[in-house]
Amino acid sequence: MYPSIHFFTRQAARERLAATRALTETARERHLALAEDYRLRAEAMRAA
After folding, report:
1. Separation between Cα atoms, residue 21 and residue 42, nearest integer Å
2. DSSP string spanning 1-16?
3. Contact 31/22 with Cβ under 8 angstroms?
4. What are phi and psi of 18, to 5 degrees?
5. Contact between 34 and 15 (Cβ < 8 Å)
6. Coarse DSSP helix, strand, coil percentages of the chain, rounded to the nearest 5 percent
7. What pLDDT, on the 0 to 100 scale, is given for residue 10?
8. What is the predicted pLDDT for the residue at 3?
């Protein structure tokens, strides 16, 4: 089963929240990068 747009949108929100709670700058950047990746995946799925 493929993840849905809703899943990607929720994961992006979770990663953004995790970025605010991250203890190190590296972890914060990683969470923000993952959030951006999930956002782009959701957009691509909407366009398909």
Report:
1. 24
2. -PPPHHHHHHHHHHHH
3. yes
4. -60, -35
5. yes
6. 85, 0, 15
7. 96
8. 81
Cα 15 to Cα 19, 29, 47: the distances in Å are 6, 10, 23
C-alpha of 43 from chain center: 12
- Give the tokens for residue 32: 């923000």
CB-CB neighbours of 42 under 10 Å: 20
- Note down pLDDT in tens along the chain; length 48 residues: 578 999 999 999 999 999 999 999 999 999 999 999 999 999 999 998
Token pair belonging to 29: 């950047």
Six-digit token pair at 45?
Answer: 């799925």
At residue 1, the pLDDT reads: 57
